[in-house]
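note to self — DONT lose this again. spent like an hour looking for the file last time. sequence + predicted structure for the chain T wanted, 64 res
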Amino acid sequence: MEVIINGETRITSDGLSLAQLVDELGLSGKRIAVELNREIAPHGHYGEIALHNGDRLEIVHAIG
């Protein structure tokens, strides 16, 4: 399936969860915030959020 991450199209496996995508991107354990289709995704629920073809994600690193 195709998802758009920070404006870039990426091909991923069907049925991927947000947690799996974060891991695939090498961002597990990092301080990030994810917006999925213009809504903030709750950090503790990434494993429960299924991604779908055409989803738009914005991923930002928390700096502080």
